Structures are given as C-alpha cells and as structure tokens.
Amino acid sequence: MRMIIKGGRVIDPGNIDGVRDILIEDGIITQIEENIIDYNQDKTDSCEIIDASGLIVVPGLIDMHVHLREPGHEYKETIKSGSLAAARGGFTAICPMPNTNPVNDNRQVTEFILTKAAEADAVRVYPVAGISKGLNGNRLSEYGELKDAGVIAVSDDGKPVNNSLLMRRAMEYAKGFGLPVISHCEDLELAADGVMNEGPVSTRMGLAGIPNAAESVMVMRDISLCELTGSALHIAHVSTSESVHAIRDAKERGVAVTAETAPHYFTLIDESVYDYNTSAKMNPPLRSSEDRESILKGLKDGTIDVIATDHAPHSALEKDVEFNNSANGIIGLETSLPLSLRLVENGTLSIEQLIDKMSGNPARILGLDNGIKVGKTADITIIDTENTFIVNASEFLSLGRNTPFDGWELKGRAVFTIVGGRIVFKDK
Amino acid sequence: MQFEKKDILDMESLSADEINLILDTADKMKEISDRSIKKVPTLRGKTMVLFFYEPSTRTRLSFDIAAKRLSADSLSLSATASSTVKGETLVDTARNLEAMRPDVIVIRHPMAGAPHMIAKMVSTSVINAGDGMHAHPSQSLLDIMTVREKKGSLDGLRVAIIGDISHSRVARSNIAGFSKLGANVILSGPPTMIPKGIEALGASVVYNINDAISGADVVMMLRIQKERQKSFLFPSEREYARFYGLSADKLKNAKEDVLIMHPGPLNRGVEIAPDVADGPHSIILEQVTNGVAIRMAMFYLLSGGVRNADDN
Fold first, then answer.
1. What is the interface size between A and B, counted as CB pairs within 8 Å?
2. Same domain, A206 and A144
3. What is the pTM of this model?
4. Residue finishing a domain among A315, A341, A366
5. How many angstroms separate the CA of residue A322 from the nearest CA in chain B?
C-alpha cells in the first residue's frame, strides 16, 4: 500500500518547513522530497495520490485530554463516536480520561477501551488511568499493571487529589514507570457550591461563584510536590491568570511541570454564561477577560505547552435543565483546530508554535514518537487553513451537541486525517 | 400605556416606565382590598398557576389572594406534591402545565434562571416569584410602591440595604429597581456577605453599617440565615446582632423620617431589634399589604386585564 501526499507545505517544527511530497509505504514514511515521481505507476500495486497543494501537512494532532464516556455512559459518547469525531477534528491520537463507569483503574477496563478503539479503527487511543483506585483519593491504582496494559498517564481528572500525601506518593510512584501525572487542580472547599466563575457576572446572575484561587492554590501545591519529587507533572485545563503565573515561575526555576489549556479558555469569558446558557458551563469555569489575556500570554511565551479540548460530551438529559443542575463540560474535538487556528490568524502564535502545542508537545509529554521524518509511522494531518465554514453541531460525529460554538463562523479545518498511512477522515 | 412584556422575570429587564406602570396600576388596585366585598370580576375566567419549588408562606399567599380578588382561578402546587418527585424535568413540567392553558404561571425555584428557562419554553406569561439568589421582582415592586407611597418619589433618596447581600435575591432586585427610579442604594454588611462586583448593578458599598445608615431615608434589613454560619460567613448571631443588627441606637444617625423595611420573615433580635421592627418608623406590615396590590397589578397587566375589563 502506497500513498503520496503531493505539493503540500510540510511543517514539522524544528525539522521541515517547505513544499514537499511525502511517500508512505505500508504505513511508514519512506521518502520526503521536493518532487516524488510515482515510479511504480505501471504496476498493479496502486498508489493513492493526495493533492495537498495549497494545504499544510503536519504531524498528526494529539488531544491529550478527552472524555469518551465508554464504558458506562454510551448514550453520551462511545469510543467509536469519539474516535470518529477526533479524526474529523484532525486528531490522530487521543487520551481518554478514566472517569468512566467502571473507572479505568485496572487492566480489564484499559483492555476493554483498547479493544473498542481497535474496533473503531480510526485514531490511536491512549488511555489515562486513575491516580487513585475508583478516583476516590484513598489508595493508589496499580500503575505497573496499568502501564503494562497500555496506559499512558495517570489522572483523577474530574476530581482533585485532596490528600497531599497521596499526591506526593502518586508522583513518586509514577516516576518509577515513566508515567506523567496529570492533575485536575481544584480546592473543593473553596469551590464550594459554585457553578460558574466568581465575579461580577455571577453576582449579577445570582449564581454561586468559583474563585480563581480554587484552582491556583492547588496548582501551587502540586508545583511544590513536583519540586519535592522531581516527577513529571502536567496541569490540566488551566483557566486562571494566577495559575499561569505560578507555572511560569515554576518553569523559570526549572521545575518539570507542563500545562495545558482548552480552546474555550482562550476564546470565551464568563459572560457567555449570561442567559443561563448551560452550553457554556464547565469546570473549571470560563473566567474573566483578564484571565483570558493571561492564558493567551501563557500560550505565546510557552508557559502553557499544550492545547487540549477536555472534550466532555453530555446529552440533553444533563444539559437541558436548570443551570445549577446541569452537568459540567463541553465538547471540543470538532472545533479545537479551527478555534486554535484563530490564534495564528490574529498573530498570537506562529503556525509552528500551534503545531507544537497540538502535536509536538503532547507527544513529548506522553513519550510518543511523532513527526514527519523518513522511517516514522505516517500519522499526518492535512489542514486547509483557508476553508471558512459555519459550525453546525447537528452534523458532529460526536454524540454530544453541547458546544457554545454552534453557529460560529470559523476558518481552517482538517481535510485529511491519516493514521498509520491510512485515511481515517477525508473532508467531502 | 400598555404593558408589552410577556413575562416579569427580574427588575433589570423592566424599564422605569414599565415599573411606574405596574406601580400606578397597583395604587388603583389597593382600594379593592379595603372593600367589604374584596372581589372584582376583572380576571374572571383566567387561570393562574402558582408553582412553588421552595417553601413560602407570605409570597404564595399573597399571589393567591391577589388572583382571587380579581376573580381569577388560582391553584397552587408545591414541588413535593408535583411530579418532580417522580423524576419529571422542569422542562417537561412546564410544557405539561402550558398544555392545560393557564394564563399566568407564577414560579418560585431555588435555582437562579429556572423561571427564565421556563419563560423561553412556553407561550404562557411567567412571573418569577423568586429564583435562587437571583431575583424577586414582585418583592422589589412592593418595596418600591411602599416607599413611593410614603415619600412621593424615589428620586434622590438614600436607601441602605444591610445584611447578607450575597445570598439575597431581594437585594439584587432592589438595587436594580430603586436605582432605576433615581434612588441611591448603599449596601452594607460583613465583607463575607458582599459579593464581588455588586457595584456594577448600581449600588455603592460601605462596610461600616453606621456609615450606611447615616442620613438614610430608607433602611432595609435582610434576613440572616443561621445555616450561613456553616460556610463561615459570620461567627455567631450574638456578634452579628451587635455589629450588623439594626438597633434604636444605630438608627439615630438616619434621617428623622427614616423608613424601616424588611422583606420577612424577621429574626427578631438578630438583624433587627424588636423595638425597631415594631417602632414608629417601621413599614414592614405595609409592605405586606402592598404586596397583594402589586401582585394584582402584575396579574392584571400580564393577562390582558385591560382588554378583559373593557368586555366587562
């Protein structure tokens, strides 16, 4: 099986930037040249030609923070629907969080996820297992066994690890297996019964607020534990200015901390919640415009390494209810790339920085081998940066429709998603 | 002037003209309650559903009496008696109510925005009788009516609202309502109870309650809820009463003709001393009386009472 991606601008930051043809044979990149002739044309072995002229060709995008809801909540999303949504969004790999039912804290659930992912036959699925058994914060999960089963990181995402000693031990123990610890930073007592950002908007709406400090005090604790243990710590879904400052300071001191934010935190602010819009309800909540500015600065100066979606599908059962009763979370797989490309369009990031944040950096943090080089597996995303379209949630491949971006006009999207040399998504 | 809105959900969405129209209508309605036969046929054949997801005595009774004085049929549901306990969603409940063709749905709900959600869903008029910490427009309207009766106008009045502003829908609605009609609203209470950015609603904040009371034309005390001690908002009722409760002594710095208000129910001896609550400046019970008139006016304006009256 052979494929040539012809005439695209190939960008693999630090490696290539230029118009190249890429030859892929049996899923492996075998040649990257300015003009590859299909020398095998006469033979029966057919060669697929992808005309990528005017398009950019980048290493496959990785979303290191998604919720696929299977097992347990298949009416919200399945591993298959989530994988197809990821492929449509330009992702070649995704990392589902363990807060399923049952929780992914054992080999059986990890293997179930991997089996379902293989059946879905779309993108690569690298499961994240619980830091603690049952995500209860009482006992460590069996990281050795889980790593052996195919887990790529540990996280209690959705919940913080309240017990600082358990968090310390998790970081130390995970280091022994080379697993990064992904932390959901939230002080539950400070967050109390809050349902949105604490500030003038929550005051006006009469909704209980979640202060910025509910996130940043835990970010600071985990940075201290990271310094203590020397383990790899990754801070999930950074939403506040104070967290960005804490992470920047830590990095300057040489602490091995990395961080992600989600497109909604650099695109929206808490005013999106006006009118009690449950499609803008998530945890951590949308913050103030000052926080959004800080997030953008953090992305620009490298404090924030990764853009991840925190794709959190819910059905109308959880969202068409009173704001207080509504579940937290929005979907993101099919809007992440176009929303992130706006940062390139408006000059916040270079295209290289963006690719690093959506591919190179998550690969480095997770220890994945990604990139457009001869000899590497052909996980490639082809992007049309000029394609303007209206977001239509009813067409999503995700089962979720809970997005605040429905009806938005966006520019730029994936037109081909290639995993192991196979096209898993092709734009009509 | 006609009232054009389908719903009355909060004071922020009402214009000063609309507020005045409701007040003027209520002024006319008030006399009906003084008659020996307290009933007019104006809303005969109209159906008012009072849906209370939260306990309430005063507000619910007041809406019920208001409907009956206008000859409307009113029926009252509470969350425990409704199908909510069977797991029906608010949306389904609202749609089912609408299918029975009431003219006005009055809803009280512990969650902010619930009445707004229902209002969007149904073509029936919706009155918010209190949603979480968000809004309580009928309370604000009756408060404004009572002050207007006493003072003639709200323009330039100094109105102090004191207590747990954070958790108070009455405070939020009154900041919006009083400031729209030209009053200066000053908020006070322990800083734990003053929410971030409240000034943006049209009020100023002082932490010393004597500064708030000084020169005030109106002092409105808010009910303090004992369970708030659990979230560390104040240490004890004793300490609260001493520093934030309204006593005759603290009232000395107010204007001579100051009005004392409270949305009820009272915690005598905590946020308000009994002698102040029962004293000559208190208009607390007049607030309750005017509540009926305000709610009559709301029903009248929302259910096409003007046209109905012509038919009669």
1. 65
2. yes
3. 0.93
4. A366
5. 6
